[in-house]
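Quick one, probably user error.
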């Protein structure tokens, strides 16, 4: 996990960018630990939480539920959740479930 806090150039608030790199499978056996990890990674104030999925080989419904839950907790804090570089299978799963329309996904 990497946290970057760029210095504001014009007196604006600092935007915290946190990146969490995931790998392996996200399933019913790993989703509880993932939820705890992402909750700890949520910035305290306005910011961006990037979840790098480039090394995730599998994700089931419990993994999707974790991502949706984290997004619901992030929004009131002013945090934007972004899913980065999902593999084609996960991209398809997000599209088929319609989650690509409510979660921010970037290549």
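Nope, works fine. Designed sequence:
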């Amino acid at each position: 996990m990497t946290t970057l806090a760029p210095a504001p150039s014009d007196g604006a608030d600092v935007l915290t960018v946190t990146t969490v790199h995931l790998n392996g499978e996200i399933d019913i056996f790993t989703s509880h630990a993932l939820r705890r990890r992402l909750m700890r990674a949520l910035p305290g104030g306005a910011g961006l939480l990037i979840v790098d999925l480039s090394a995730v080989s599998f994700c089931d419904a419990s993994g999707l539920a974790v991502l949706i839950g984290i997004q619901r907790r992030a929004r009131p804090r002013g945090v934007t959740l972004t899913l980065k570089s999902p593999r084609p299978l996960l991209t398809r799963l997000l599209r088929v479930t319609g989650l690509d329309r409510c979660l921010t996904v970037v290549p």
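Residues 81 and 103 are 7 Å apart (CA to CA).
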